Amino acid sequence: MKALSKTFGFALAVTAVFAAFAAAATLALGSTSLSAGNAAVSSCGISSLTATRDVDNSGNVLQVNVSGVAASCTGETLSVTLKSSTGSSLGSASTTISGTTATVTGFGSVSATNVYGYAFAVEGA
Fold first, then answer.
1. What distance in Å separates the CA atoms of residue 101 and residue 64, rounded to the nearest whole number?
2. pTM exceeds 0.85 for this model
3. In what helix (H) or strand (E) does residue 94 lie, and over which residues does it extend?
4. pLDDT, tens digit, for every residue of 70-90?
5. CB contact burial 88-108 (16+ within 10 A = b; e otherwise)
């Protein structure tokens, strides 16, 4: 009975691994798009973003100013996540893109001294 349980468990693990590989095999990566199955996602042309932050009198992040946004991204949503020294999220906020620079506000009371980096995401309209 114990051998049967081990054999069944091994077969189940192998099946799960092959299912994961099969799902990953459906992804096609390119320089401007990511697609899976029949759904395609195209890029609005952002190659690199830079950010500066403004702080209030308490030392908290008031806003993040993002430049390098492609004009073709107008109308899409830009999300910014403030990252700690360990890479964990300190706070996130988003805005609708309306030009080649974007100002993102609404991070709450995140101390600027704790911010070591930014993570960006653009979501299509």
1. 10
2. no
3. strand 89-96
4. 989 999 999 999 999 999 999
5. eebbbbbbebeeeebebeebe
Range scoring the smallest mean pLDDT among 34-38, 43-47, 49-53, 66-70: 34-38
Partners of 77 in the beta sheet? Answer: 96, 123
The alpha carbon dihedral of 74, 31, 79, 40 has a sign of positive
- Yes or no: say if 41 and 57 are a contact pair by the CB < 8 Å rule: no
Question: CA–CA separation, 9 vs 23, rounded Å?
Answer: 21
Rounded Cα gap, residues 62 and 56, in angstroms: 6
73 CB-contact burial (10 Å; exposed 0-12 / middle 13-18 / buried 19+): buried
Amino acid letter for position 37? G
Q: What is the residue-wise DSSP string for 25-90?
A: HTEEE-SSEEEETTEEEE-------EEEEEE-TTSBEEEEEEE---GGGTTSEEEEEEE-TTS-EE
- What local confidence, expressed as pLDDT, does residue 44 receive? 81
